[in-house]
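Entry 14. Ran structure prediction on the chain below.
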Amino acid sequence: MSWISNYVRPKINSLFARREVPENLWVKCDGCGTMLFHRELGDNLNVCPNCGYHMAISPRERFRDLFDGGVFVEISVPKPIADPLAFKDQKKYPDRLREARKKTGEEDAMLVAEGEIGRLKTVCVGQDFAFMGGSMGMYVGNAIIAGAERAVKRKCPMVLFAAAGGARMQEGILSLMQMPRATVAAQMLKEAGLPYIVVLTDPTTGGVTASYAMLGDVQIAEPGALICFAGPRVIEQTIRETLPEGFQRSEYLLDHGMLDMVVRRADMRGVLTRLLRLLTNQPPAVLGELSVAPAEVPAAEGAPAGASAQS
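Output, structure tokens:
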């Protein structure tokens, strides 16, 4: 009777056993609490279709939607010293880096790429909040400089997407030194007469806000993004007063002149295309291609005017 135990019973169990559903199939919106299917959310660029809440998105996913045809070339970034201060809190700094690289699949908190946006060659720099809170370390400084140098070499504009919790404490003063380094990179673009556009996403705080994130020729933000140096909770505890609703959010800062525009993620490509072509004195982007008209066949000798030649 071994065939009943070894074959029939496992076959029956496989038919009626409860199948485990992966936990990452559904994502809860932090704005309205709706459970969203991951494919639907990905197709909508990580924006809730119910309330319009803009969730975090990786630079690689953003660039696939931003560049023409989703095609771009990564620009190599010089690697800094791995652990300059031999820093250790609850974990060693190299262990934290290793975990973040395994989680995101990226080398560090910033990705630099080159491609075309509306047929205009552009260098884009994107910060990844999923990598240690997008903290600004030496690699981030190297990435901004590498992007600026590439833009100057190619004579093309640069767009930077900021998303950070501030400086990376594991690198101490070396992290803070990236603020003047990034400022020099922005100055390189200015001296070369090249546009530098900054897109502020949720959240952009700390030393990032105090340096390269506020030096753009045009300052854009996604809806509802927290943009500040010190967070609302710290300010309330310091001044012991309740802050206005929406304080330090994109719409509040736009009303108070700190931003030039607030743009939804779905409209970002179109807005950047128009801005980049305008700032580089290019004609408006071609939105469609017209088919080539067929060549006219010369009329045969003796044929009436307007008649086509016979083959």
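The first strand starts at residue 26 and ends at 28. Will compare against last week's run tomorrow.
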